[in-house]
Amino acid sequence: MAERPKAKDAYWEGKLPLPPGYGLEHGAGALLLRRADGSVAAAFSVGGSAPSEVARTAEEDQQRNGKRPVRDRPIGR
Fold it and tell me: How many domains does the chain have?
């Protein structure tokens, strides 16, 4: 049985599309979805978060909160 892709791995491999300025930060067993201003948009389990779930959450957050300034470099990279 094939292992389901993890959001953390997809992000570090450049295969997780996030809105401009959003990034993932890994720490203490959690993935933090951060906005361009550094605030936390959502937290996910490191082992159980699907890339599509993280991408959808980021897109919904961006729509709710409007456009945020874009950072020159994504967080966590």
Answer: 1
